[in-house]
Amino acid sequence: MARVLVGVKRVIDYAVKVRVKPDKTGVVTDGVKHSMNPFDEIAVEEAVKMKEKKLASEVIAVSVGPTQSQEIIRTALAMGADRGIHVEVSGKDYDLLQPIHVSKILSKLALDEKADLVILGKQAIDDDSNQTAQMTAAMLDWPQGTFCNKVEKGDAGLTIVREIDGGLETIKTKLPAVLSADLRLNTPRYATLPNIMKAKKKPLKKIAPKDLGVDTAARIEIVSVVDPPVRQAGAVVPDVDALVAKLKEGGHV
Amino acid sequence: MFCNTVRRNVSRANILHRCKSTLVIAEHNNEALNPITLNTMAAAKKIGGDVTVLVAGTKCGPASETVAKVEGVAKVLVAENAAFKGFTPESLTPLVLAAQNQFKFTHILAGATAFGKNLLPRLAAKLDVSPISEIIDVKSEDTFVRTIYAGNAILTLRSKDPVKVITVRGTNFAPVAASGGSAKTENAPSGDFANSLSEFVSQELTKSDRPELTSAKVIVSGGRGLKSGDNFKLLYDLADKFGAAVGASRAAVDAGYVPNDLQIGQTGKIVAPELYIAVGISGAIQHLAGMKDSKTIVAINKDPEAPIFQVADVGLVADLFKAVPELTQKL
Fold it and tell me: One MF term from GO for this chain (chain A) (predicted)?
């Protein structure tokens, strides 16, 4: 029976059109709708499914971030996680927090909590790094199953189908292991109202990176954050003939 | 040589400044070099300094011969070993670390593909440095440009780490010439790279005669509007007229119309062809992230309010089931 650690990140909701701050230091986050990173919902769903199949004994949801990250942990608890750990990092420290810091925190927690499996999303939709699972695996010296499309537990370990550039790939890993969820691993459930109420009573521990002995000193300096170049507005053509003419004009046919 | 001479007179920081050396990790499939390696070398060239290319696999002959002829490559390191079956990061990471210990590269690069994204963060963690994902430009040896928030903001960052571990977005760097070079080839550091943690089992690759999506000049892409996998035939027929690759939105992949490796977008492939024809695709933020650097974008959609028309150079508001066959026939 495995204990599963799931990482969840609070990010600007995927449907929001972000706005860059005029001072070029970042994007506007105040007053903007936030939610759980979509890939992390898939990670939580996979962990909860493992518990339902009696493959996992306990699911622990972890989030690193400001106070509001606790709302995201509560969402994971409402989906079926058993308890939460909030590693508080806020302000300037959080602006410069990188996957290397988060993976150090997660790997320390994986050992402290005696986890057999760490499941994360393949990337956060804000920084689009796609690094944390790989780095957590490296720090633990555990195998990594990234971009998971399917995970099955066997006697000796895991059989994982991964999404790769040309199609799919199957690998086997030993346990303990670190996984990262791709979009097609599963369809996350909605938390029901009774489960949301129950989640409020589940334990949620708050700690700081220094409690884990993790140094969060900045590894990067933000030079600027700016808007991408705007495309020139195009023309709407009335029919296929006009479209063919435009393609000819552009030298495409 | 030059570095050794000046080492006595100048501080160590200056030495590092002057002696940039980049390791590019080649991507190949034991049969041929993946072209993104040439785009990655273009980023290495922009950083400056010597470029060494590492070719690791169970059969390195074809890729290392190709790499040795590439313009601007100083040295090719070859590591042929049964341990690298399936290119598992658990076996490749110790190899790259051994090469790093011997040669002390200042930059380690790979293409931002499934291979590069899987391997480089593991390597960076072992080096205790913060990796930099999917750069779109090089400002200087420590300052790089990348996109965040699905391409809706552009971040320029300065790395404070001693070694820069970087994946490169291929579409933003024109490939270096595949000829004109004559690099020397030598064996990579040897060691026991057998990996007991993970094992490659098999691959199911999508078979296609069409050009590879990320390097295609023309892409015809379909979304939910196609309504079924069978209807994608309309797009294949149109694509044949251009010798184009066929792509898809997440909606089309999720609905099972086409396999996942055709997905274009924030979490799929990033493409920037000469011509991108979006058919029955609304143009969600996540899809635009993967194609909005295309030179010319054509949209065919029956909804005049679809966001895709805000980025399209040429838009046609029409029923795709009528317009696409007509277009195919008239080309």
Answer: electron transfer activity
Q: Is the pLDDT of residue B17 over 70?
A: no
B234 and B171: one domain?
no
Interchain contact, A130 vs B117, CB within 8 Å = yes
Given A168, A169, A226, which is nearest B154 (Cβ)?
A226
Q: Do A240 and B327 touch (CB under 8 A)?
A: yes
Tell me how far apart the alpha carbons of residues B203 and B147 are, in angstroms, rounded to a whole number: 31
* pLDDT tens-digit map of B172-218: 999 999 999 999 999 999 998 999 999 999 999 988 889 999 989 99
Q: Which two tokens stand for residue A248?
A: 């000819």
- Which chain B residues contact residue A246 at CB under 8 A? 298, 314
Are B148 and A237 inside 8 Å of each other by CB? Answer: no
Show the domain range for B242: 218-330
Walk me through the domains of chain A, giving residue ranges and CATH numbers.
2-223 (3.40.50.620)
Q: For residue B287, give both structure tokens.
A: 């899809």
ipTM of the prediction: 0.96
Return d(Cα B166, Cα B40) in angstroms, integer: 10
Which amino acid is present at A126?
D
Q: Is B182 on the interface with A (CB under 8 A)?
A: no
Does residue B72 belong to any structural domain of this protein? yes
| Structural domain contains residue B11 | no
The DSSP H or E segment spanning A185 is none
CB A171 within 8 A of CB B213: no
Q: Which two tokens stand for residue B190?
A: 């040897």
CATH of the domain at B253: 3.40.50.1220
Instruction: Please tell me which of the candidates B113, B118, B203 has its beta carbon nearest to residue A167.
Output: B203
* CA–CA separation, A52 and A221 (whole Å): 44
* C-beta of residue B111 within 8 angstroms of C-beta of residue B270: no
User: What is the reported pTM?
Assistant: 0.94
Q: Which residues contact A57 (CB under 8 A, 6 or more apart)?
A: A1, A2, A3, A51
Q: Do B155 and A99 touch (CB under 8 A)?
A: no
Average pLDDT of the segment spanning A182-209: 97
Give yes or no: residues B145 and B267 share one domain.
Answer: no
